[in-house]
C-alpha cells in the first residue's frame, strides 16, 4: 500500500506564530494536551515551535494509535529555552526545540502531537474555534505510555501557539553488500552464501526495514533472517546477478546488486594417454577407442586439431564417454608416418578443458604377386563374343581385396573376376572388331594391386587370320525370254568359305553389277539371281552380270554371268505431250482438250490403251482420257475457278501396248472467266420516315453476289423523276436521302416511290432489281403562333355570359404536318391567375368563363394559350388581357358625365395597336431616361426624381387606390400592362406627361405612380 511521504519543512499546527497567541494558559499543574488534528504524511520530526508564557520544563510528544488508545513513541523536553519570559503576557516569546540525531524519529500518517508540563501550563493560545484533548496526570508520562484518548476534558475554542515541522526521511541502504561473491558449482542445495544487512540513517526506521530479492532460478532469499541460499544445482550455470531492495516504513527504497560468480571445476580425461594399432589399408568407418571423461556437468570432446581420417562423437546419452572412429574414405600411408598422434580435448560448458593424447600405430601393407605371367594365347580375328582367354594366379599375404587392370586400357580386351570364382580372368570383349591385316598381335600389361601396393606383368594375344570365300559355278552363259515374269529365278550362284572362329560358318553376302547398267536383276542372300522387273518391253539383247561373294571380313574374286535376252517387243512412244494447256472455267462437259499421239511398230498386232492420273488429285474429277482413242476431255464436274484451292494440275498420261508402256506429262492451268453479278432477290422494299438529306434508308446496303472473287461491284439508282431525292453508295449499296424529303403539304413529295437499282462488276457485266420505297409521314413540325403575342380588352363588370374579349379575333396557329399530325387543339395555362377565368374554342377564340372583376379594374393579366398537334407536339403564346371598367346606369336615375377613355369606341380602335407599340418603346424610354438624367439640365433632372431603378414590382404591390388596385402582380407582363395603362391615362388627363415619359420602365415611385392613379 502506498504511503503519503512528507516534503521537507512541512508544518502541522499554527503556521504563523505571533503575538495573537497571548491568552493566559492557566495555572493548573501536570496537564497533558493532545491535538486531534494529527500528522498526515510519513517523515521525520525536525523541530517543535511554541509560544511560551512562563518558564518551566516543557515536554513535546508524538502519540501513535495503539490497541487501547494512543501510545507515546517520542518525547523531548526543553527548560527555559529562550532564557527570558515576560510575565505580563503581553509579549510572549517564541521558543522551539530542534530534534537532533537519535531523536529524529519517523512519524506516520495518523500520528498525533501534544505536550506536557509538570508545573503550571506554559504554552499560550488565542480564542479560535479549535479543539484539544486535555487531561491532568498524576505521574510523569514517558515513551511507551498508553492512554485511551480522549480522556478527561475536551477543550474547545482554543488554538494553542504550537507547531511541528517534519522533513522527508532518508532512503534506506545496505551496509555490507559487496559487488560479487564466489560459489563453487558443486555447492549443495540449501547452502547459505550470504546474509544481507540493511541500514537507515533514520534510527526509528531501522527496525521496520523490509528486504526483498528479485526472483532467481538458482538462489532463494529468506526475508525473515535475510539469508541467501542455493535453491537448485549450479552445475554449468552462468554467473547470476541478485537484485535486493530495502524499503522503510515511508516507502523509501534502496536497491543494490550482488553478482554470484559460479566457479567451474575443469573436466578430467581418465584413460588417456593411450594407443592402438591400425592397418594402413583401412578406408572404412570403423570404431577405434572410447575416451572416458569426468566432470560435474556436460562436456564436449573434440580432436584438436581436427583430423581428416578420424572423428570423435558422444557414446550414448552421457557425455562422460566419447568414441573415436575412422572416417569413411580415410587414407593412411605407412611410408609417410608409422604412427598418428590425436590430441583429444574435452571442454565443459564453463569453458574449462582437459587435453590428452591418443596414438594410432599403423600396420604396413604386404604387396600382391602375379604367379603365371608373362604368358600368351591365340584368338581368331572373327571372334566377336565375350570369351575367357586366360585366368590369372594372384596372391596377397595380408589383403583379400585385390584389383587387376590393364595398365593401358583396351577396347578389345577386359579384366574382370571370373564368373562364379574368386580369380581374375582376361576376356575378349563382345562385339570386338579384329583385323589381322591391320594388327596381328596385342601386348596387355596387367597390374594387380591391393589398397597400397601392386605387381605388373605381360600377357600377349596373337590373331588367327580369316580366309575369303570363293564362287564355284561362275563364270557361266544363259538365255532369258522377255516373257519371263517378275520374280523369275534366273540362275542359282554357289560358293565355298572356310569356317571361322570356334568352327562357326560365316554369313555370306552376294552383290552384282550389270553392263549395261539398270539391269533388271537382283541376287538374294541364298545366291539366287532373280528378275526384279518386267522385261517384256526390253529392247537390249543381253547383260553381263558381275557377281561377288563376301563374308563379314573378306571378299572373293569377281566372276561374270552372261544373260542373253530373246523374244524382244517394240516399245510404244508418246510424241505430242510434255506441254502446257490452258482450260477456261465453265468449259462445256466432255469438251476435247487434246488427243494423245502414240506410235508402236507392232501395231496393228499390238492394241494401244491410254490412262491418265493428275496431281493434285482433284484434277482427276475435272479431266479424263478416253482409254481407246487417247482424247483428253473435261469431266462432268463444272470447273469453277473461284472455288478451286489449286488451279494448276500436272497430269501423267500412259500409252501401253500390253507389254510395254510410255508416259508423258501434260500441265493444265484453269483460267478465270468474268461472270455476271446478281442481286440476292429480284425486288427489295424499304419503309422509312421522311427526313433530311443524308438520312440512311438502308444502312446495310443492297445484297448481291458475284462468282468472281475478289470482285469490285458498283451500284447505281434510277427512281425516274424522283431520282434526285435519293442517293446510293456506289461501293456498299447503302441507300439514303439525297436532299430533304418532305411528304407534308409544304414539300408535296409522294409517300411511295418505285426505283431500279443496277449492280455492275469490273468487267461491265450487270444485274438489276427493283426497290419499292415507302416514306412515312412523321410529326416533324410543331404548331406555330402568328403572331407570338396577343393583347385583348375585357369588360370587368359585364356578365360572364355576354363578356367577350376585344378585338373579337381568334389566335392564329399553323402546322406544316400532313393529316392528323397537322390537326390543332387549344388549351389555356392560367396557373399564374390562380383560377380558370377564360376559355378557348377549338377555332382559337378566347372568352370569359368566370367573373374577372376580382382581378382589378384597369389591371392587365397574362396567361398562355397552348396549341397541340395530333402527334403531341405543342407551342405556347402569351395572351395579355386588360380588365376595363364601365359605368353602371340606374334604371330610374341618369347621371350625366363625360365619357371615359375606354367608353369611346374611337379610342379603342387605336388603343390596341398602341399597346403593342408602347411595349416596344419601353426599352427606348428607359435608355433615354437614364441618359437624360445623367447628362441634361435641371428641368429634366427634376422630372426624373420619380425614378428608382429595380423597384417596380415591390412598389407596385403596395398600391391600394380606389379605382385601380394592382394587388396581385406576380408576372412581369401584368406589371408592364399596368404601366402602359397609367401612361395612356396621363396622356389624356395630365398635362405634365413629361414626368411619365422620362421615367424608366422599372422605376415608378410611390409619388409618381399614385399621382397618376388619383387623377383617374
UniProtKB/TrEMBL annotation:
<dbReference type="InterPro" id="IPR002126">
    <property type="entry name" value="Cadherin-like_dom"/>
</dbReference>
<keyword id="KW-0812">Transmembrane</keyword>
<feature type="domain" description="Cadherin">
    <location>
        <begin position="811"/>
        <end position="893"/>
    </location>
</feature>
<keyword id="KW-0472">Membrane</keyword>
<dbReference type="GO" id="GO:0005886">
    <property type="term" value="C:plasma membrane"/>
</dbReference>
<dbReference type="GO" id="GO:0007156">
    <property type="term" value="P:homophilic cell adhesion via plasma membrane adhesion molecules"/>
</dbReference>
<dbReference type="InterPro" id="IPR050174">
    <property type="entry name" value="Protocadherin/Cadherin-CA"/>
</dbReference>
<dbReference type="InterPro" id="IPR015919">
    <property type="entry name" value="Cadherin-like_sf"/>
</dbReference>
<protein>
    <recommendedName>
        <fullName>Cadherin domain-containing protein</fullName>
    </recommendedName>
</protein>
<feature type="domain" description="Cadherin">
    <location>
        <begin position="175"/>
        <end position="275"/>
    </location>
</feature>
<keyword id="KW-0106">Calcium</keyword>
<feature type="transmembrane region" description="Helical">
    <location>
        <begin position="908"/>
        <end position="930"/>
    </location>
</feature>
<keyword id="KW-1133">Transmembrane helix</keyword>
<dbReference type="GO" id="GO:0005509">
    <property type="term" value="F:calcium ion binding"/>
</dbReference>
<feature type="domain" description="Cadherin">
    <location>
        <begin position="575"/>
        <end position="679"/>
    </location>
</feature>
<feature type="domain" description="Cadherin">
    <location>
        <begin position="680"/>
        <end position="785"/>
    </location>
</feature>
<keyword id="KW-0325">Glycoprotein</keyword>
Amino acid at each position: 500500500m502506498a504511503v503519503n511521504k512528507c516534503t521537507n519543512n512541512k508544518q502541522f499546527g499554527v503556521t504563523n506564530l505571533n503575538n495573537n497567541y497571548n491568552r493566559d494558559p492557566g495555572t493548573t499543574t501536570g496537564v497533558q494536551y493532545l491535538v486531534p488534528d494529527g500528522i498526515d504524511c510519513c517523515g521525520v520530526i525536525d523541530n517543535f515551535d511554541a509560544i511560551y508564557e512562563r518558564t518551566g520544563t516543557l515536554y513535546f510528544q508524538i502519540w501513535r494509535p495503539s490497541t487501547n488508545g494512543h501510545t507515546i513513541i517520542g518525547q523531548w523536553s526543553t527548560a527555559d529555552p529562550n532564557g527570558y519570559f515576560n510575565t505580563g503576557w503581553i509579549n510572549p516569546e517564541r521558543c522551539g526545540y530542534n530534534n537532533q540525531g537519535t531523536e529524529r524519529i519517523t512519524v506516520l500518517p495518523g500520528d498525533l502531537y501534544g505536550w506536557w508540563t509538570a508545573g503550571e501550563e506554559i504554552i499560550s493560545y488565542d480564542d479560535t474555534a479549535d479543539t484539544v484533548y486535555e487531561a491532568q496526570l498524576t505521574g510523569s508520562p514517558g515513551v511507551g505510555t498508553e492512554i485511551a484518548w480522549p480522556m478527561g476534558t475536551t477543550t474547545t475554542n482554543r488554538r494553542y501557539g504550537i507547531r511541528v515541522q517534519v522533513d522527508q526521511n532518508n532512503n534506506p541502504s545496505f551496509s555490507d553488500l559487496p559487488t560479487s561473491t564466489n560459489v563453487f558449482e558443486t555447492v549443495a542445495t540449501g547452502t547459505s552464501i550470504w546474509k544481507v544487512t540493511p541500514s537507515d540513517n533514520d534510527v526509528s526506521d531501522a527496525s521496520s526495514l523490509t528486504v526483498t530479492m528479485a526472483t532467481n532460478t538458482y538462489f532463494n532469499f529468506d526475508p525473515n533472517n535475510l539469508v541467501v541460499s542455493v535453491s537448485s544445482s549450479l552445475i554449468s550455470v552462468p554467473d547470476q546477478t541478485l537484485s535486493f531492495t530495502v524499503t522503510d516504513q515511508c516507502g523509501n527504497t534502496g536497491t543494490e546488486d550482488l553478482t554470484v560468480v559460479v566457479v567451474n571445476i575443469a573436466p578430467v580425461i581418465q584413460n588417456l594417454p593411450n594407443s592402438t594399432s591400425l592397418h594402413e589399408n583401412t578406408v572404412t568407418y570403423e570404431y577405434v577407442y572410447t575416451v572416458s571423461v569426468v566432470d560435474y556437468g556436460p562436456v564436449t570432446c573434440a580432436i584438436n586439431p581436427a583430423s581428416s581420417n578420424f572423428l570423435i562423437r558422444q557414446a550414448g546419452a552421457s557425455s562422460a564417454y566419447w568414441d573415436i572412429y575412422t572416417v569413411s574414405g580415410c587414407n593412411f600411408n605407412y611410408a609417410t608416418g608409422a604412427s598418428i598422434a590425436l590430441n583429444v580435448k574435452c571442454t565443459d560448458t564453463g569453458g574449462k578443458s582437459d587435453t590428452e593424447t591418443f596414438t594410432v600405430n599403423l600396420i604396413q601393407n604386404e604387396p600382391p604377386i602375379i604367379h603365371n605371367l608373362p604368358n600368351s594365347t591365340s584368338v581368331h580375328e572373327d571372334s566377336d563374343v565375350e570369351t575367357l582367354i586366360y585366368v590369372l594366379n594372384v596372391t596377397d599375404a595380408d589383403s583379400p581385396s585385390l584389383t587387376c587392370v590393364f595398365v593401358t586400357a583396351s577396347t578389345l580386351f577386359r579384366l574382370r573376376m571370373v564368373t562364379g570364382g574368386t580369380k581374375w580372368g582376361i576376356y575378349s570383349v563382345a562385339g570386338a572388331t579384329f583385323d589381322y591385316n591391320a594388327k596381328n598381335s596385342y601386348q596387355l600389361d596387367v597390374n594387380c594391386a591391393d589398397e597400397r601396393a601392386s605387381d605388373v606383368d605381360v600377357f600377349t594375344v596373337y590373331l588367327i587370320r580369316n580366309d575369303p570365300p570363293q564362287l564355284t559355278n561362275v563364270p557361266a552363259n544363259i538365255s532369258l525370254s522377255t516373257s519371263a515374269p517378275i520374280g523369275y529365278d534366273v540362275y542359282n550362284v554357289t560358293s565355298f568359305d572356310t569356317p571361322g572362329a570356334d568352327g562357326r560358318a560365316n554369313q555370306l553376302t552376294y552383290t552384282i553389277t550389270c553392263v549395261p547398267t539398270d539391269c533388271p536383276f537382283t541376287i538374294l542372300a541364298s545366291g539366287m539371281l532373280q528378275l526384279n522387273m518386267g522385261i517384256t518391253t526390253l529392247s537390249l539383247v543381253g547383260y553381263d552380270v558381275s557377281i561377288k561373294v563376301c563374308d563379314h571380313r573378306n571378299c572373293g574374286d569377281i566372276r561374270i554371268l552372261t544373260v542373253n535376252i530373246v523374244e524382244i517387243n517394240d516399245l510404244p512412244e508418246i510424241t505430242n505431250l510434255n506441254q502446257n494447256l490452258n482450260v477456261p472455267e465453265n468449259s462445256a462437259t466432255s469438251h476435247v482438250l487434246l488427243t494423245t499421239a502414240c506410235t508402236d511398230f507392232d501395231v496393228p498386232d499390238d492394241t494401244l490403251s491410254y490412262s491418265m492420273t493428275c496431281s493434285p488429285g482433284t484434277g482427276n474429277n475435272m479431266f479424263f482420257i478416253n482409254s481407246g482413242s487417247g482424247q483428253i476431255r473435261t469431266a462432268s464436274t463444272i470447273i469453277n475457278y473461284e472455288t478451286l484451292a489449286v488451279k494448276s494440275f500436272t497430269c501423267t498420261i500412259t500409252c501401253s501396248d500390253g507389254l510395254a508402256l510410255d508416259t508423258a506429262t501434260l500441265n493444265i492451268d484453269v483460267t478465270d472467266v468474268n461472270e455476271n453479278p446478281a442481286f440476292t432477290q429480284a425486288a427489295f422494299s424499304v419503309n422509312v420516315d421522311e427526313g433530311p438529306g443524308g438520312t440512311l434508308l438502308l444502312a446495310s446496303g443492297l445484297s448481291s453476289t458475284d462468282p468472281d472473287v475478289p470482285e469490285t461491284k458498283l451500284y447505281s439508282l434510277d427512281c425516274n423523276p424522283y431520282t434526285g431525292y435519293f442517293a446510293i453508295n456506289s461501293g456498299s449499296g447503302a441507300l439514303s436521302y439525297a436532299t430533304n424529303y418532305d411528304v407534308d403539304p409544304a414539300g408535296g413529295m409522294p409517300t411511295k416511290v418505285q426505283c431500279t437499282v443496277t449492280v455492275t462488276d469490273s468487267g461491265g457485266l450487270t444485274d438489276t432489281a427493283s426497290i419499292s420505297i415507302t416514306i412515312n409521314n412523321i410529326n416533324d413540325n410543331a404548331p406555330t403562333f402568328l403572331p407570338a403575342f396577343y393583347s385583348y380588352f375585357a369588360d370587368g363588370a359585364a356578365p360572364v355570359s355576354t363578356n367577350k374579349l376585344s378585338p373579337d379575333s381568334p389566335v392564329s396557329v399553323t402546322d406544316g404536318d400532313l393529316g392528323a399530325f397537322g390537326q390543332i387543339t387549344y388549351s389555356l395555362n392560367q396557373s399564374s391567375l390562380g383560377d380558370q377565368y377564360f376559355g378557348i374554342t377549338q377555332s382559337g377564340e378566347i372568352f370569359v368563363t368566370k367573373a374577372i372583376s376580382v382581378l382589378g379594374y384597369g389591371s392587365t393579366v397574362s396567361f398562355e394559350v397552348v396549341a397541340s398537334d395530333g402527334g403531341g407536339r405543342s407551342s405556347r403564346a402569351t395572351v395579355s388581357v386588360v380588365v376595363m371598367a364601365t359605368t353602371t346606369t340606374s334604371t330610374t336615375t341618369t347621371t350625366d358625365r363625360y365619357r371615359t377613355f375606354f367608353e369611346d369606341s374611337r379610342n379603342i380602335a387605336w388603343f390596341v395597336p398602341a399597346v403593342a407599340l408602347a411595349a416596344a418603346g419601353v426599352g427606348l424610354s428607359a435608355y433615354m431616361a437614364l441618359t437624360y438624367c445623367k447628362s441634361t439640365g435641371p428641368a429634366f433632372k427634376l422630372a426624373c426624381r420619380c425614378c428608382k431603378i429595380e423597384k417596380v414590382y415591390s412598389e407596385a404591390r403596395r398600391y391600394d387606390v380606389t379605382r385601380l388596385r394592382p394587388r396581385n402582380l406576380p408576372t412581369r407582363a401584368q406589371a408592364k400592362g399596368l404601366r402602359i395603362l397609367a401612361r395612356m391615362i396621363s396622356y389624356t388627363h395630365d398635362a405634365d406627361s413629361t414626368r411619365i415619359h422620362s421615367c424608366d420602365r422599372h422605376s415608378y415611385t410611390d409619388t409618381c405612380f399614385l399621382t397618376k392613379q388619383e387623377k383617374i
